[in-house]
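Example 3.2
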Amino acid sequence: MLISISMFTLVMSSDGTAVSRLERFESWPWPFSVLILIGVAYFFGLYDVLTLGVASPAIASQMGVSATTVATVGTVISLVGYLFGAVGFAHIADRYGRKTGLAVTLVSYSLGSLFTGLSTTLAEVYAWRFITGVGIGADLAIAASYLSEMSPARVRGRFQSLGTFFGFVGAGIGPLIGLFVIPVADYGWRVYFIIGALGGLVVLFLRRRVPESPRWLISKNRTREAEEIIELAERSYEKRKGSLPPITAITGQTGTEEKQVPLLSLLTKKHLPRLILMLVVFLLYYLYAYPFLALTTSFLAGSGYAYIQSLTVVGLGGLGFALGAFLSFLFSDHTERKYLIALLFFVQAVSMVGIGLKGSLAEEVTSYFVAAFSNTFLATMLYVYSAENFPTRARSNGVALTDGLGHLAPIFSVPFTAALFVSHGLFGAYEALAVEAALGGAFVLLGIRSTRRVLEEISE
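Structure, written as C-alpha cells:
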C-alpha cells in the first residue's frame, strides 16, 4: 500500500514499513561478500593513487622525462578526472541505480588502467590516467552511498568503516606488487597497470550478483522489488543469528523522486547548507592531506635527515594507516560522529606540528604514526558522515560533489606547500598544514548529529 504525502511516501508492507524491516537488524544483515565486493572500490581507489608514483621512474626512463614530472602531472590529471567522474557518473547512480553506477565506474577504471599499460607516448599515459581517475572518483562516491543505505542505523558507521578498510589494504599491496613486477623487465610497469585493470574486470563480473539498494528502489516507487531484496537480508540474518529482531516503527519518511534531475534535490533549504558545509570540510581535509601524504618523504630528506631516515619515518610511521582504518571499525558508532571527526581533525593538527618540529628520528616516527592512524580514521568517518547528510534520491550526487570538488584543493595546495617549505622550512610548511586541519575540525562541528539515527529521519 502506498500513501502519498506531498513529495513523500510511506511504503507499507505486511510487517510494517520496508525501511523499518531493514532497520531492525542489529548487525550487517547481508552476506559478507556484498561488503567485500563494494568495499573493494576503496581498494582500487588507494591502489590507483599510488600506482603512478611507484611506476613513474620506469615510465620516465623510457619516455625521456623526469620521474617527478610524470608523477606530478599525472597525479593532477587524475585528480581532474576524479572530479569529472564523481560529478558525472554519480548522477547515473542516483537516476538509474547504485548497481548501474558501480558497473559504469569499474568499466572506466579498468579501461583506463589497461590502456595506460599499453600507452606508447607520455600524452597517452596522461590521457588514460584521466579516464582512470573518472572511474575512481565516481566509484568511491557511489560505494559510500551504497554502504550507507544498506547498513542499519545502529551499525552504519561500523560496517561502512569495514568496507573502507579494504582500501587501505590496497594502499599496502599496491607498492608491494610494483616491487615484484616493475623491475623484472622493461615492460614491467605496463604489467603493473594491466594487473589493476584485470582486477577491476574480475570485480565487475562478481558484482553482478550484488543486490540493488532497497532504499533507492523505494525512492523510485519500486517497493515490491525492495521488499524482495529485504527478504534476502532477512533470510541471511536469520540463518546466522537464528531469529529476526522485532520491527520498530520509524518516524522518518522515504522521499520518492519528484525532480527529473536528482542533483536539484540538493538545492533545497534543508540540504543546500549541508552541501556547502561538507564541501568546505572536504576542501580543508584535502588541502593538507595530499601534501602530507605526497611530500613528507622529500621534505624530511631536504631538512637534513638522510634519505634512509626519511624512508624509515614514512615506512614505520605508515603502519598507523592500517590501525586507523581498524579503529574506525571499532569505535565509529560509539560517539556522535561529528564530535569524533572534529577530534580527529585536531589530532591531525597536533601531529602536523610534531612532524614540523624536526625532532629525533624516534620522535618523527611517532608523530608520523599518529598522523597516519588519525588520517585514515578521519577519512573513513568523513565518507560515512557525508553520505548521511543527503537524501536517497541524490545521495551519490551529494557525496560526489563534496568529495569530488574537494579534490580541487590539492591541485593548488601541493605546489603551495612545496613553495612554503622552500621559503620557511619544515616547520613553516607543517604549521600551515596544522592550521588547515584545525579549521576542518572547527567547521565540522556545525554539522548535523547522525550517529545511530535512521537515514530517513535525518536526510529525507
